[in-house]
Amino acid sequence: MKKVKIIALLCALILCLTLALTACKDGDPNVITNEWWTTTGELQFNEDGSVNFPNVTIKLVTVVSGDDRNTFSSLIQRFNLEYRGKINIVVENESQSNFESIVAQRVSSKNNAPDLIMSHQKGHRYFAENKIIQPFDPELMEQSGIEIDLDKYSEGLTQYSSLGYEDRIFSIPCDAQSMVVVYNKEQLAELGKELPTNHQELLEVCDAYVKKYGKNAIAWPAGDAQKHFYNYVVTTAIMQNGGELYDADTKRANWTATENAQAFTNAITSLRDLVASDGTVKYAPFDDNIGREVAQDKFIDDEALFLMYYPWLIGNMEELYTRQHAMTQEQFEQAVGYTSMANWFAMDPDSDDAGKIFVDSHFFAMSRLVEDINKKAAILEFIRWFTQNIDICTEWAKAGHITACKAVSETEEYKNDAYCQRFINEVYPNIDNFVCMGLTSHYNTVLSYVEKLGRETLVDPQSSIIDKLTRIQREFNDEIDLNEI
Known about the structure:
Layout: H1 2-27, E1 56-62, H2 69-82, E2 87-93, H3 99-109, E3 116-120, H4 124-129, E4 133-134, H5 138-144, H6 155-158, E5 172-173, E6 175-176, E7 180-184, H7 185-191, H8 199-213, E8 218-219, H9 228-240, H10 258-272, H11 292-300, E9 306-309, H12 314-324, H13 329-335, E10 336-339, E11 357-358, E12 362-367, H14 373-388, H15 390-397, E13 402-403, H16 406-409, H17 412-415, H18 418-427, E14 434-435, H19 443-459, H20 465-483
Parallel strand pairs: 1-2, 1-3, 8-9, 11-14
Antiparallel strand pairs: 3-12, 4-12, 5-12, 6-13, 7-9, 7-10
């Protein structure tokens, strides 16, 4: 009897060990043990070696649904005309709200499911974790001759393309966008100043402006209902000072770790430098009543030297400015310019992080339901066309989205385009310095607590930063723990 118990105990131990090892292996974010996708069919080729696409229809669902929707639709029409009889893209535009859950439900139920997804990078980890998407096959790229070489794309963005899986390409970056800086050229010239290239120069320019005009130097939409001030400006300040929004392994906040605590302290301090230590206005007002339109109007009324604004609304701002000042477009370009917030918040201007800009970036991903190799190749062809075609990337830039492809951005044709030269090149000086949310499915939690940290430390500039970090970090991690129960 004793012998039987010992054997049973050993068997139980072996079973537990086996399950533990299996779970560890299956849970390793760098290893895929069981592929959840398949490939069927064969490619046919034309005499010139190109793929002979048999009139493939691709259903694309995208988060592009705002002011840039019309531009995107016109580009899709151009593609369908160019590839008539070969590939046809059918687009559905979904709002950002609940985009990931909506797409995941459609793929899981195989009901109105997309073949191709174009959405923000921050949601793609969720898609991979839930096996909603499949990787792009390098062998298919080689076989079809349709190359997507990630070395030709922004290093800051392609670091997320594997979504944490070893030797896989799950996501391909398309573009990037963040807050941009608009400035009054005439007022800057009257100050006898140049555009600031670091934090100290920013403070000096703002101080000179306040002394001369008696007005706030910066108009920023801290009260914007969309939280873009926190999602782009506060996050950029953290990135430029070397901070990490969450631990890459645990997905929890580690804001109070020694180096990270210093980075966060520097970031908050750099923003506090723009408001008075007693909470009164200094160079930039921190006011929940100042949303997008109020900030825009302050700049248009010549009540601010700088405006933090949204790239997808630049055309609207230019129209309002020229109308109010009775200007031609040429006169507007002489009076108003664009610049970048790169280096604006870094306390160490010589650090490798000083030029970073936190962005949202559209990435392409392929649904796990796509099996036909012809459709997979057609998807690759469309992605190549959209991300590597200079003319298309230039048109997409006019909707506020800089290309993520260095093979495009570094060409003279792209750089010398009138719009890119005046706007895009100035706002995004180095696309390798882009930083996205990264590999966490808890991105909404991350952003909500970054907002809380930014709001609380700027509303009360005399409060202890480390105390705020400690408490808000605990709340952040408690919510992650609750979400994972």
